[in-house]
Design goal:
The longest helix has 16 residues. The chain is globular, with a radius of gyration of 18 Å. The chain contains 9 helices and 10 strands. It has a single domain, classed as 3-Layer(aba) Sandwich (Rossmann fold).
């Protein structure tokens, strides 16, 4: 079944005259000769909560990496808030810093994101890279520790934390930058029931606060809870009764 809808026709929370915050046009990417994304057209407005669904290897994680500027289109374009994101623009350190300040990426594997000697250093790393005053850095560390209830972890080494604690710290690292957009790759994977429940509640709070969420997941309960619209990647054609689009099909 082929769908020609675009997200704008399925979910429009903002006036149509406003440009989309995230805009992909004919976006293509391949790893060597293996195609990951083919001719993707996608628009995401500020405040949207978008869930990417599809089989393993269909390109969901690749799409998230593209949004945060870790990979670039080999054909087509990606614009964030009207500015094109590509290899050339990301060589501009001011542009790259601004993008990474406004759009944060929470990896599926928290160990891939954590590398500092203490939790406090982890959370402070991003704001310090932005060359914020140390007083502002400490304020952000304090605020995010309180928000995620990880005060008691501040002096701990991240590698000694539990999976759920690492996930909270990884989220704190991103939130300390106060991004407009959060990209999350399988955020509930590997978490116990208590941590899953907490994270789902926290994501609902972020959505309610107007943050833009782009979430790749196989978890249908998470998708049903948070999605304003679905984007099905690859040959997966489920949930025809829900508003969604198909890309890379």
């Amino acid at each position: 079944m082929t769908h020609t809808h675009t997200p704008q026709s399925l979910h429009r929370a903002h006036p149509a005259a406003q440009p989309s915050l995230i805009e992909l046009r004919d976006f293509c990417y391949a790893y060597d000769e293996v195609i990951a994304l083919r001719h993707v057209d996608l628009d995401i407005d500020a405040g949207d909560s978008v869930v990417l669904m599809g089989d393993n290897g269909s390109g969901k994680s690749t799409l998230l990496k593209a949004l945060v500027g870790l990979i670039f289109p080999q054909q087509g374009t990606y614009r964030f808030d009207g500015k094109e994101v590509n290899e050339q623009t990301m060589r501009d350190s001011a542009f790259a810093k601004r993008l990474h300040q406004r759009i944060g990426f929470i990896f599926q594997d928290s160990d891939a994101q954590l590398f500092c000697p203490t939790v406090e250093d982890e959370i402070a790393f991003g704001p310090r890279q932005m060359q914020l005053p140390e007083q502002e850095v400490q304020r952000r560390v304090d605020d995010t520790c309180a928000l995620l209830d990880i005060e008691k972890l501040r002096a701990r080494a991240p590698y000694n934390l539990s999976g759920g604690e690492k996930k909270r710290v990884a989220i704190a690292c991103v939130l300390s930058m106060n991004p407009d957009v959060l990209c999350l790759d399988e955020p509930l994977a590997g978490l116990d029931a208590k941590t899953r429940s907490w994270l789902l509640m926290f994501l609902r709070q972020l959505k309610g606060a107007g943050k833009t969420l782009v979430i790749a997941t196989h978890d249908q309960s998470l998708a049903d809870e948070l999605a304003d619209f679905f984007v099905y990647v690859g040959d997966f054609h489920g949930y025809e009764d829900r508003p969604h689009v198909h890309i890379n099909a």
